[in-house]
Amino acid sequence: MKVRLGYYPPYHSKYNPIERCWGRLEEHWNGDILNSVYKAIEWAKTMTWKGIKPIVHYCQKIYENGIKLTEKEMEPYENRIVRSLLLPKWDITIEPLIG
User: For 53-88, how does the pLDDT look when each residue is reduced to its tens digit (9 = 90+)?
Assistant: First the structure.
C-alpha cells in the first residue's frame, strides 16, 4: 500500500486538521486552568466531535530533535519516494517494499 504524505507549510494551520482539533479542544475547556497533566488528559477525554469521543493517553516517549540521515543512509529510501512535480517539498508518495 502506498503512503502519501502531504506536509503543511509553516504558518498554515488553517489547513492542518490537527490544528483545528486543538482549537476545538481549547473551546471545550473554556478557559479552565489545566494545572496538571492528569487534568488536561481528563478534559480531552470528555470532548466529542460529531458524536465521537477521542482516545486519549499520556505518551512518555521522548523524541529526539535534529536527527538527519546522510545521503548514503537515505539512498535505499529515496528509490521509493516519488515527489510531486508541483510541490516536491510538501507532497511525497512512498512506495512499499515488494517481497
Answer: 888 889 888 888 888 889 999 888 888 899 999 888
Q: How far is CA 10 from CA 13, 63, 87, in A?
A: 8, 20, 14
Domain count, the chain: 1
**Residues shown for the chain:** 99
The partner residues of 92 in beta bridges, in order of sequence, read 5, 83
Q: Is residue 99 part of a domain?
A: no
For residue 28, pLDDT over 90 is answered with no
Is this structure's pTM higher than 0.85?
no
Query: How far is residue 99's CA from residue 44's CA, in Å, rounded to a whole number?
Result: 42
Count other Cβ atoms within 10 Å, centred on residue 34.
14
pLDDT for position 70: 92
Cell of 71: 545521503
Q: What is the CA radius of gyration of the chain?
A: 19
> Which range marks the domain in which residue 11 is found?
3-94
